[in-house]
């Protein structure tokens, strides 16, 4: 079968003689038998390390979890710098975790989690940081300062954890370039290999933000500071 | 580049070591050839042992006894005692930094029984225990401002004239440039060597024993390299792991005749040998979980179902899953004492690349995640302490000049394709240095490996591009694979009697 791979020089077509193979198996076969210079990342081969995320026919996939098809067009992730061929630089995207403070800030000793509590954020903690959601996100595409889907899911993971002693501290860090910048387009959900919905997590974070006294800055912009929205034109609070 | 403690490897062991060193008040830098969230640790599913007795009565003493039994006399009792006694603290610490362990209805950390354990002892986080521990450690490192550098590959350790380690020579994979990373002490946390078996391994493609090979090149002693654990249920075509929990939950092993031939819950080495024996007798072997039912499988073994469909085109709900036993974990590694100090000054090691003498000849399921946390912390503390206490490491970094493999390899002739040889080595070792071993076959394998080492200058790197040259990285990995293979077969030959995972048969 023929597949086309985007490289520095443009699209290159390869003929792969494999039946029922994953894209990762096809790439490994090309690399070891046809073209040693093809660059891609891989690791566990079982969808848990997040190394081999890329795009096939304009949709984000893990190469190890995608069955390669005749005519597939393979490209690197979007919205992150391409280092070479299918390899991208994830540093900037991963930095959003730090800016969003995706960690347990204060451990609440007296809390006892039950099996029900555990389910609250079991899905969010399945995230493998593959970056598919950043590639699909139209907001991150135009604003690198946007905290982005997996970082915001990470915030919700800890905010919803009863062990977190200072959940409200996290709220402040996600007001600018955070929850209100998301357009709720749901692209992140559609591409997530772990079936996580960052969009849904962002909605929950919005609700918690509102409860903590924050407002959607675009709302206050639309209606002006004359309304009692609490925010001025530039998004800063007015008193 | 200069730091106090340089940590090589960003899996569970490396990140725990980094946090411990940072807490001791030193400067820390972690480097990894991947990203911190992509290491082998993320693949651990089963759990992490600690005698908490949350589900049924258990004791630290039982944990110690089970571990020693599995180790077949090759473990150090003090080390095992320390690890098992520290286990409840280690789990408590992980819980406090936010690991999402599964819970019991009454709010305790849930535990399940793994092979060789006398009680349900493995704390788990659904079937993503390693992933969730690793990511929580990574996030903790973000919180603590630990410097982590990705796409940096260890070429060699840097030593001074007196032989002590003072840093590492690193290939920046992104730029293709060499970097000298100087440090007062170095912690290797670079993982095991199961990938010497190439496609006969459940492991990530990154488990090529880089740190072990580099340590051995500067004179560090290795220990127990012959001990390789084979997991009974790798998928037949891809060697992807089907977790032991499939058998724990009641799965059967069948041969082509549909007969069960072994107690499925016997220790891994025993089950692997039984499977191997059947395969050599011409049988195909299958894992059968059909009787567990679709609802149960989807609730308890979802990853297993997904992987079987993807890689073998079988649906475990209605089909048998073809399997074979494949390399899964390497007990051997760099010899360290209870403080994670290797035989070389300034060099510490933890995780699968180290041999802390707790697994001996066979590792118990659930003890590796435990080991990386308990001894990762020890290694980090010891490496930090070394920077305070040892006068020698305070001196300037006067390097001993050694030939650099990267430079040398530029002259290599590229007549022989190393990818072909890498596959060949995997086949050779699976057949001759694998589940069962014979002296004559070990000697054949040794001869082959030595021959290949001689032929390295006829291999080489086809891709001449500097930026992200994975052809180059994989060639250096292959060099390490050969070094490690030589050490494995040498230790195997030195041990004439069967012991745990090292199983010798008479000619």
Please tell me the CATH architecture of the largest domain in chain A by its name: Orthogonal Bundle
Q: Name the helix and strand elements of chain A from N-terminus to C-terminus, one letter apiece.
A: EEHEEEEEHHHHHHHHH
- What is the CATH topology classification name of the largest domain in chain A? Fumarate Reductase Iron-sulfur Protein, Chain B, domain 2
* Rg of chain A (C-alpha, Å): 21 Å
In percent, how helical is the residue content of chain B?
A: 25-40%
How confident is the prediction overall: mean pLDDT of chain B? Answer: 95
Corresponding CATH superfamily of the largest domain in chain B: FAD/NAD(P)-binding domain
Low-confidence segments of chain A, given as residue ranges, are: 224-239
Which regions of chain B contain 5 or more consecutive residues with pLDDT less than 50?
none
CATH class wording of the largest domain in chain B: Alpha Beta
Number of strands of chain A: 7
Cα distance, first to last residue of chain B?
A: 54 Å
Number of domains of chain A: 2
Q: What is the correct CATH architecture of the largest domain in chain B? A: 3-Layer(bba) Sandwich
Shape field of chain B: globular
Major sheet characteristics of chain A:
5 strands, mixed
**The named CATH superfamily of the largest domain in chain A:** Alpha-helical ferredoxin
Q: Main interface pair?
A: A-B, 57 and 55 residues
Care to describe what's here?
The complex is a heterodimer of chains A (239) and B (507). With 239 residues, chain A is an alpha+beta fold. Chain A has two domains: 2-89, Beta-grasp domain (Ubiquitin-like (UB roll)), CATH 3.10.20.30; 91-223, Alpha-helical ferredoxin (Fumarate Reductase Iron-sulfur Protein, Chain B, domain 2, Orthogonal Bundle). Chain A has ten helices and seven strands. In chain A, the strands form two sheets. A five-stranded mixed sheet of chain A has the order 2-1-5-3-4. In chain A, strands 6-7 form a two-stranded antiparallel ribbon. In chain A, a hairpin with a 2-residue loop joins strand 6 and strand 7 (87-89). Chain A is elongated and about 60 Å long. Residues 224-239 of chain A have low confidence and may be disordered. Chain B is an alpha/beta fold. Chain B folds into three domains: 2-226 and 331-394, FAD/NAD(P)-binding domain (3-Layer(bba) Sandwich), CATH 3.50.50; 234-325, Succinate dehydrogenase/fumarate reductase flavoprotein, catalytic domain (Flavocytochrome C3, Chain A, domain 1); 405-494, Methane Monooxygenase Hydroxylase, Chain G, domain 1 (Up-down Bundle). Helices cover 37% and strands 16% of the residues of chain B. In chain B, the strands form four sheets. In chain B, strands 1, 2, 6, 7, 8, 9 and 16 form a seven-stranded mixed sheet that branches. In chain B, strands 11-14-13-12 form a four-stranded antiparallel sheet. Chain B is globular. At the A-B interface, helix 1, helix 2, helix 3 and helix 6 of A face helix 3, helix 4 and helix 9 of B.
């Amino acid at each position: 079968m023929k597949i086309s791979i985007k490289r520095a020089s443009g699209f290159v077509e390869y003929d792969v003689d494999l039946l029922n193979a994953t894209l990762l198996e096809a790439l490994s076969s090309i690399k070891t038998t046809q073209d040693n210079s093809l660059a891609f990342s891989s690791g566990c081969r079982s969808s848990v390390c997040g190394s081999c995320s890329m795009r096939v026919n304009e949709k984000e996939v893990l190469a190890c979890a995608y069955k390669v098809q005749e005519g597939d067009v393979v490209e690197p992730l979007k919205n992150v710098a391409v280092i070479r061929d299918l390899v991208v630089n994830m540093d900037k995207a991963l930095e959003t975790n730090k800016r969003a403070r995706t960690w347990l800030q204060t451990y609440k000793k007296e809390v006892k989690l039950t099996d029900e509590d555990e389910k609250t954020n079991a899905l969010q903690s399945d995230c493998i940081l593959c970056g598919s959601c950043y590639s699909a996100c139209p907001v991150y595409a135009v604003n690198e300062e946007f905290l982005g889907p997996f970082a915001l899911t990470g915030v919700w993971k800890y905010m919803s954890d009863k062990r977190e002693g200072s959940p409200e501290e996290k709220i402040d860090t996600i007001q600018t370039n955070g929850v209100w910048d998301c357009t709720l387009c749901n692209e992140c959900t559609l591409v997530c290999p772990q079936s996580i919905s960052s969009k849904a997590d962002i909605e929950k974070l919005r609700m918690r933000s509102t409860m903590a006294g924050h407002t959607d800055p675009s709302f206050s912009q639309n209606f002006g500071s004359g309304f009692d929205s609490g925010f001025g034109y530039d998004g800063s609070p007015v008193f | 580049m200069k730091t106090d403690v340089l940590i090589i490897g960003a899996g569970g062991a490396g990140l725990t070591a980094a946090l411990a060193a940072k807490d001791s008040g030193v400067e820390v830098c972690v480097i990894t050839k991947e990203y911190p969230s992509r290491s082998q640790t993320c693949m651990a599913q089963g759990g992490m042992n600690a005698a908490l007795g949350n589900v049924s009565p258990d004791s630290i003493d039982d944990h110690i006894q089970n571990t020693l039994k599995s180790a077949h006399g090759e473990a150090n009792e003090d080390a095992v005692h320390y690890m098992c006694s520290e286990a409840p603290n280690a789990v408590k610490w992980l819980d406090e930094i936010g690991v999402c362990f599964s819970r019991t209805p009454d709010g305790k950390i849930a535990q399940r029984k793994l092979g060789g354990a006398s009680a349900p002892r493995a704390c788990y986080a659904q079937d993503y225990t390693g992933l969730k521990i690793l990511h929580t450690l990574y996030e903790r490192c973000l919180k603590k401002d630990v410097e982590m550098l990705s796409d940096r590959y260890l070429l060699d350790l840097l030593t001074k004239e007196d032989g002590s380690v003072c840093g590492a020579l690193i290939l920046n994979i992104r730029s293709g440039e060499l970097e000298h990373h100087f440090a007062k002490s170095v912690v290797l946390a670079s993982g095991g060597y199961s990938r010497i078996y190439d496609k006969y391994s459940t492991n990530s493609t990154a488990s090529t024993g880089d740190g072990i090979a580099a340590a051995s090149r500067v004179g560090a002693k290795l220990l127990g390299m012959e001990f390789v654990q084979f997991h009974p249920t790798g998928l037949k075509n891809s060697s992807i792991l089907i977790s032991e929990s499939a058998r724990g939950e009641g799965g059967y092993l069948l041969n082509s005749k549909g007969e069960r031939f072994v107690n499925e819950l016997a220790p891994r080495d025993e089950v692997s040998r039984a499977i191997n024996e059947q395969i050599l007798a011409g049988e195909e072997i299958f894992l059968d979980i059909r009787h567990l039912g679709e609802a149960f499988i989807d609730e308890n073994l979802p990853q297993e179902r997904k992987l079987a469909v993807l890689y073998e085109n079988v649906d475990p709900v209605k089909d048998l899953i073809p399997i074979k036993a494949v390399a899964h974990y390497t007990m051997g590694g760099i010899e360290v004492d209870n403080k994670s100090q290797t035989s070389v000054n300034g060099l510490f090691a933890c995780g699968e690349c180290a041999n802390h003498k707790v697994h001996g000849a066979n590792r118990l399921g659930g003890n590796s995640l435990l080991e990386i946390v308990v001894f990762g912390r020890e290694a980090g503390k010891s490496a930090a302490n070394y920077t305070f206490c040892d006068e020698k490491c305070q001196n300037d970094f006067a390097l001993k000049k050694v030939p650099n493999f990267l430079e040398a390899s530029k002259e290599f002739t590229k007549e022989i394709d190393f990818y072909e040889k890498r596959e060949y080595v995997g086949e050779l070792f699976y057949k001759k240095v694998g589940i069962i071993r014979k002296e004559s076959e070990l000697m054949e394998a040794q001869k082959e490996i030595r021959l290949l080492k001689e032929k390295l200058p006829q291999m080489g790197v086809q891709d001449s591009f500097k930026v992200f040259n994975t052809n180059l990285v994989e060639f250096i990995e292959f060099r390490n694979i050969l070094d490690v293979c030589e050490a494995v077969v040498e230790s195997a030959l030195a041990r004439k009697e069967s012991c745990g995972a090292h199983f010798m048969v008479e000619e």
